[in-house]
Amino acid sequence: RTAVLVAVDDELCGLIAIADTVKPEAELAVHILKSMGLEVVLMTGDNSKTARSIASQVGITKVFAEVLPSHKVAKVKQLQEEGKRVAMVGDGINDSPALAMANVGIAIGTGTDVAIEAADVVLIRNDLLDVVASIDLSRKTVKRIRINFVFALIYNLVGIPIAAGVFMPIGLVLQPWMGSAAMAASSVSVVLSSLFLKLYRKPTYENYELPARSQIGQKSPSEISVHVGIDDTSRNSPKLGLLDRIVNYSRASINSLLSDKRSLNSVVTSEPDKHSLLVGDFREDDDTAL
């Protein structure tokens, strides 16, 4: 939590603890994404303790805390250089550069206009389960495209040899009306196959929850790997002395500033106008939790 001290007439009289609440469907969404074979990583500008607490509640084991917007871009780029396809989910201004850099940027519809503009997919509702539904729908769409390709290919594989006269010795000849019928049948079969997507129904919360209810469980702090900035050095032990904390935070601050400059200079985009708007002036607006 973030502590806010309250003073009246220069005398401390109270303390208010402020914290973001975890979306009720977040734990289920993370579990389903993992069951789909995806690796889920949390990147946040909050401090490591807050990030560890949130990760333990939703079941995420790898966390990057105290990251700047440019750090998120650098991490996405690093994962892409490792050969991974990255989907970034975010709704804030700080997420916009990473949304633009990711292979697929997914923005929550209730987020900022900059994030929505930078993303490839915009979810209308403020529901993380729609992330799961969008991936599920995209997979079914790609599967249908492959089926349509097979339908179109079959007519050509059968019709072209006949039209070339390969089977003429046995009396099999392709008449012009047969070729026209085959072309029409090919188009009709592809269209009808595509129309099957109209039968798709997004699974409800109950559909997701019932199979996963027995498998969902919060992670213990020892199972969570927390990294400060984009450094892959794990901070597994939160019990540090005051001097160690000062040294670590100072080191993280220096690394953050250096990494911020490097990542801003290394971003390569195919749409300079959009990305320059998102990345160019962030050094003035960055807010860090260090």
Automatic annotation (TrEMBL):
GO terms for molecular function: ATP binding; ATP hydrolysis activity; metal ion binding. The keyword Oxidoreductase does not apply. It comes from Macaca mulatta. PANTHER family: P-TYPE CATION-TRANSPORTING ATPASE. Keywords: Membrane, Metal-binding, Transmembrane, Transmembrane helix. Its main location: membrane. GO terms for cellular component: membrane. This is Copper-transporting ATPase 1. The chain crosses the membrane at residues 149-171, 177-197. It is found in: Membrane. InterPro entries: ATPase_P-typ_cyto_dom_N, HAD-like_sf, HAD_sf, P_typ_ATPase. The keyword Membrane applies.
